[in-house]
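agent: user wants the full assembly modeled, not chains individually. Plan: 1) parse entity lines 2) check alphabet per entity 3) run joint structure prediction 4) return tokens. Steps 1-2 passed, two entities, 226 residues total. Proceeding.
--- entities ---
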Amino acid sequence: NAGVTQTPKFRVLKTGQSMTLLCAQDMNHEYMYWYRQDPGMGLRLIHYSVGEGTTAKGEVPDGYNVSRLKKQNFLLGLESAAPSQTSVYFCASSRLGSREFFGPGTRLTVL
Amino acid sequence: KQEVTQIPAALSVPEGENLVLNCSFTDSAIYNLQWFRQDPGKGLTSLLLIQSSQREQTSGRLNASLDKSSGRSTLYIAASQPGDSATYLCAVRYLEIQGAQKLVFGQGTRLTINP
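--- prediction returned ---
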């Protein structure tokens, strides 16, 4: 099992550009999450999904959109990147009430 | 507001010592609590999960305890080794409406074990 994978691992964007981060899990988990991790701010939830075709806002959703068309994939989109979105992005998945499994992260820099 | 606090922010101890990391949370209506490990530049690995009805969980040299009434959890590491050096994060899960889960993280404790 690959667990949770994220692509890409690194990305540099210019302000205003768009991109999509892909998360894939092979554990048949219902729940999937996108977090961002910033120094001094800890991990903050951006969006999450409780099942295929459903998404919901987390703590810091502004500037991001998500889609979960297939159970195993959770996409995070930035339509118009801003320097404030420079961060490390983590995807995670779990079953209800069970441990979260995290991906290795995507380091994004917006210039 | 649901907040999770970890003290200390950083800890440095010599190899072989037993140590305790602390986590406190403001809302005691938790579903469960997890302790994670994060190595530099890596993702998080779940070490232990304690359900709200449990008092402790053990895995090898790690023991986590939970006191819901006082809003506290501790992670005990026995016979520390240099390979234990990492950042340890506490995360509390709350259940919300429509089956949503909310995981609230502490800021972490950066642990260094000196050979």
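agent: reporting back. The longest strand of chain A covers residues 42-51. Residues 4 and 33 of chain A are 11 Å apart (CA to CA).
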